[in-house]
């Protein structure tokens, strides 16, 4: 596999992290010789990854550890995005060497478990990856998501749930409910399995309702279908029609929250 040319952006730490990512991806290719999504890479495949990454960053003179973590996360994200962009430019999703993208995503999942990168970085890249592919390519990406769902949603879910929700909603907008019914179902099942049952993302907190929905009932439907009525007919006297017979009744669904006032 060709070497990745990482743009340093004028920052030596970005170039060093990019070089380390290239070494880790080459090592991942040796550990996982297949060109498929399975099997996933594990933390044990990379040895002491935390110490290798800490050697890249220079010593910080900051008084607190928080600025150091923010700086390291920013440097790592810049290097990862450069690597990710070059991998996408070099191979299509149907090519065998696209396995390097799956390996990079697995590597990010390991870095997230070690709290060495932003928890939402993995789904940021998956969101961009879905936007860059056709529906056929999105199915393969979703194969990866389904196979790693339990692993990538078990930790730091609060930091990534909005990205997951936005990514799945954007994908559903692209899909046809008539032609891509099975794929839509896969997306919904992924959401249902990822989000807890009491999550507020499924609650109508504002109380907004669709007040323009109008349902029309035809009172003559039973007679046209040949159904009998409960009215008793007397010999020599024609049956009288009910006041609403032959008329249409329109019901408009409204809510007190829609206009800001209660019923009269």
From TrEMBL:
The keyword Disulfide bond does not apply. InterPro entries: THO_THOC1. Pfam families: efThoc1. Signal peptide: none annotated. One of its GO terms (cellular component) is THO complex part of transcription export complex. GO terms for biological process: mRNA export from nucleus. Residues 224-264 are annotated as: Disordered. Keywords: Kinase, Transferase. The keyword NAD does not apply. GO terms for molecular function: kinase activity. Residues 239-253 have a biased composition (Polar residues). Coiled coil: none annotated. It comes from the Eukaryota. This is Guanylate kinase. It comes from Pyricularia oryzae (Rice blast fungus).
């Amino acid at each position: 596999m060709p070497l990745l040319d990482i743009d340093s952006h004028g920052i030596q730490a970005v170039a060093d992290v990019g070089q380390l990512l290239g070494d880790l991806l080459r090592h991942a290719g040796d550990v996982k010789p297949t060109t498929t999504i399975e099997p996933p890479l594990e933390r044990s495949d990379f040895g002491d990854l935390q110490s290798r990454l800490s050697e890249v960053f220079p010593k910080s003179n900051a008084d607190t550890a928080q600025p150091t973590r923010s700086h390291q996360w920013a440097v790592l994200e810049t290097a990862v995005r450069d690597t990710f962009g070059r991998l996408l430019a070099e191979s299509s999703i149907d090519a065998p060497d696209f396995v390097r993208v799956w390996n990079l995503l697995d590597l990010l999942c390991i870095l997230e478990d070690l709290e060495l990168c932003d928890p939402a970085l993995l789904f940021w890249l998956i969101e961009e990856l879905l936007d860059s592919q056709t529906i056929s390519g999105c199915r393969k990406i979703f194969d990866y998501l389904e196979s790693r769902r339990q692993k990538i949603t078990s930790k730091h879910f609060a930091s990534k749930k909005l990205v997951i929700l936005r990514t799945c909603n954007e994908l559903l907008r692209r899909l046809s409910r008539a032609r891509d019914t099975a794929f839509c179902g896969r997306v919904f099942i992924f959401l249902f399995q990822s989000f807890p049952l009491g999550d507020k993302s499924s609650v109508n907190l504002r109380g907004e309702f669709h007040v323009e929905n109008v349902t029309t009932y035809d009172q003559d439907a039973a007679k046209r279908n040949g159904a009998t009525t409960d009215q008793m007919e007397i010999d020599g006297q024609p049956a009288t029609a009910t006041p609403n017979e032959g008329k249409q009744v329109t019901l408009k669904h409204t809510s007190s929250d829609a206009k800001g006032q209660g019923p009269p």
